[in-house]
Write a structure and sequence with these properties.
disordered C terminus; 4-stranded parallel beta sheet; 4-stranded antiparallel beta sheet; 12 helices; 4 domains
């Protein structure tokens, strides 16, 4: 299934490759299914999301260990693979997921002790569980270590996107702190010393000396994601680019530097200055619309009638619905069949 989907997207020329939410999320030992997924692609491009939650081994007395090295080796050996990390950040957040039953299963861990779940005609759902990641929790501390190890062990920054799986691993407002951890080894070691002692004693992170450069951070947060999504007018400052620009004042404390940019431009419009919001322009909706053989609809209608709870005619999204959903923003179709493969 993974191979067929990845091949279909490649041959259609869809700019972003197959986006894989791996199996066994959060389960000790899930490194096996993660590596099996990469192997099943047989060299086809794909993006594996929040990989930190899929990089767990079963070594040690607690049967829960870091498999960051194995993930990094697999990514380094497969240049057609990209990942985002899903770094966890200590403190309060909420976990949000379309997997209602997974959220129900972890509702006992809610902090504070309340949560909400919903089901939509057995076809979809959602669950929101408040959660606090703690430095002295062995599991949480190891998750924090695993994410940083992955960031620092994958060699090519174009294959790694900086994320916290917002909000599940931490809010995106914690990105400046995460960037400092990756750029400043001494600061990273200070934070590591605060963790559960069993994690500190056995982790590989303390021996990793790499510090990301400003260029590598720019790739992981701007250029790389734009390239992965096929947004040729984003992630660079060349003539004709969209002019999405953040300008920072140099500061030795990278967290302070990235927390408050001096200027932020969106499509050339100044939207923030020194932390003050000046404008809220409406963005656009990017979509792909490859052609297909309409004869398949007869088969799909029968399958839908037998197995689904929603009328088939209510599934397709029309341009009118796209327009109403994008709040007056532009519709930005992406071209297909442009060098994607045999079609």
């Amino acid at each position: 299934m993974v191979h067929a989907l990845a091949r279909a997207l490649k041959e259609l020329g869809v700019p972003h490759p197959l986006h894989i939410h791996g199996s066994n999320l959060g389960v000790p030992g899930n490194i096996g299914s993660t590596l099996d997924t990469i192997a099943a692609l047989e060299g086809l491009p794909a993006h594996l999301t929040h990989i930190q939650f899929h990089a767990y081994g079963t070594e040690g007395p607690k049967k829960f260990s870091s498999a960051a090295l194995q993930i990094a080796e697999a990514v380094n050996a497969n240049p057609q693979i990209s990942i985002d990390v899903g770094q966890i950040m200590f403190g309060q957040t909420v976990t949000a997921s379309g997997d209602t039953m997974r959220q129900h299963a972890q509702s006992d861990l809610a902090n504070p002790r309340k949560w909400v779940g919903a089901d939509i005609e057995l076809m979809a759902g959602c669950g929101v569980v408040p959660f606090r990641y703690r430095e002295q929790s062995y599991v949480n501390a190891l998750q924090w270590v695993i994410g940083l190890e992955i960031f620092l062990l994958v060699k090519n920054p174009w294959q790694v996107v900086l994320t916290t799986d917002h909000p599940n691993g931490g809010p995106f407002t914690s990105y400046p702190h995460l960037i400092r951890l990756l750029m400043d080894r001494s600061f990273r070691e200070e934070q590591l010393a605060k963790l559960h002692p069993d994690v500190v004693a056995g982790c590989a992170l303390k021996s990793i000396s790499r510090e990301l450069t400003m260029e590598e951070v720019a790739i992981m947060t701007r250029s790389g994601p734009a390239k992965l999504l096929g947004l040729t007018d984003r992630g660079h400052l060349a003539e004709g680019a969209a002019a999405d620009i953040a300008i920072y004042r140099e500061h030795a404390d990278r967290e302070a530097m990235f927390r408050t940019p001096e200027w932020v431009f969106k499509d050339g419009t100044l939207v923030a200055r020194s932390g003050t919001l000046l404008a809220t322009p409406v963005g656009g909706t990017h979509f792909v619309e490859p052609g297909y053989d309409s004869a398949i609809e007869k088969t799909l209608r029968k399958h839908w009638k037998d197995h689904a709870a929603i009328n088939f005619d209510n599934v397709a999204i029309t341009h009118d619905e796209l327009c109403s959903c994008c709040n007056g923003g532009r519709l930005l179709p992406a071209e297909c069949f442009t060098g994607g493969g045999e079609a």
